[in-house]
Specification:
alpha+beta; 5 helices; 8% strand; four-stranded antiparallel beta sheet
Length: 307
């Protein structure tokens, strides 16, 4: 059974030989058009669903250009503001120092900017005194070095020079005494022969004997001098010179230590003189803590004494 609309679709019909009614070409064309319209509606609905269920934030993309400007900070509660990244600056000058200039609290500084200046009068005098002491210690050290070098040279000079010269002189004198003794003995022998022949008296023979005895004594003296020089005088001279050399080296070590100490004092005074100008280690805002928060630490003001 067809409805009223169905009757509109069927404009003509024919009966087949078997008695079955068939549709016309127009009826098939209308149904195809209806199917195409239905598919189009379904596709439109499917494309609309993701948009309908998606978030408005992802669908609407907003952009904004960032520019440098002032940051507004609003205090909503009562309390105390504290920095989360502090750099504590300490005075590196020994003893008490007087503040002659200080940067205002709250000032913004860059690395290397001056923060505090301390009085430098005492340190300048100390630095000048340490420089003078360093020069004096250097001069003393150089004199001691020269004395040590002289002591070393004196030992070699005595061994190779003076000792050999003294020994040579004594040996020459000894040879002369030996010749004198030989001559005295010849004179004595000749006078004894003449005395037997009656040409000389006994006094002349006695005088020649005395000359021989005197020559023998002089020869013994020179031999003793040579022995003393070799066995005693040389050792005493070398021991004395070695002692002077050891004493000179000890004084040299002492003078070197003294000079090193004076140099350290001078350098330390120079460093403290430079430390009288306290500079910022990094950029930021300067904050001076009060004495109440830091117990014995005084307020950082001009004329205050800091340690």
């Amino acid at each position: 059974m067809l409805s009223k609309s169905d009757g509109a679709e069927w404009q003509s019909a024919a009966t087949s030989p078997n008695g079955v009614r068939t549709r016309s070409n127009a009826s098939w064309w209308l149904r195809g058009l209806l199917a195409i319209a239905t598919v189009a509606v379904l596709v439109s609905g499917a494309s609309f669903l993701p948009t309908a269920f998606s978030s408005p934030k992802t669908s609407a993309r907003l952009t904004h250009t960032i520019a440098r400007g002032e940051l507004l900070v609003t205090v909503s509660e009562q309390g105390t503001l504290e920095s989360s990244n502090n750099t504590e600056v300490k005075c590196k000058v020994r003893g008490w120092s007087t503040v002659t200039w200080v940067i205002p609290s709250g000032a913004v500084v860059e690395p290397g900017d001056e923060l505090v200046r301390l009085d430098t009068k005492v340190l300048e005098e100390q630095f000048s005194l340490t420089k003078t002491n360093t020069h004096n210690a250097t001069a003393t050290l150089e004199r001691t070095k020269a004395n040590v070098a002289k002591s070393e040279i004196a030992i070699e000079a005595y061994k190779e020079g003076r000792f050999r010269a003294e020994l040579q002189n004594l040996e020459n004198e000894l040879a002369e005494k030996q010749r004198n003794l030989g001559k005295a003995k010849e004179m004595l022998k000749r006078s004894e022969g003449l005395f037997k022949q009656g040409y000389v008296n006994d006094l002349q023979v006695a005088g020649n004997k005395f000359s021989v005895t005197q020559a023998e004594l002089e020869l013994q003296v020179k031999e003793t001098e040579i022995k003393v020089l070799k066995e005693f005088t040389r050792k005493m001279q070398l021991e004395t010179m070695q002692g002077n050399l050891i004493a000179g080296k000890s004084k040299l070590a002492s003078d070197e230590a003294g000079l090193s100490m004076e140099i350290k004092r001078r350098d330390r005074a120079e460093e403290e003189l430079e430390a009288c100008v306290i500079k910022a280690e990094r950029g930021g805002m300067v904050i001076y803590p009060s004495a109440a928060a830091w117990k014995r630490t005084p307020d950082i003001t001009e004329g205050a004494n800091v340690r």
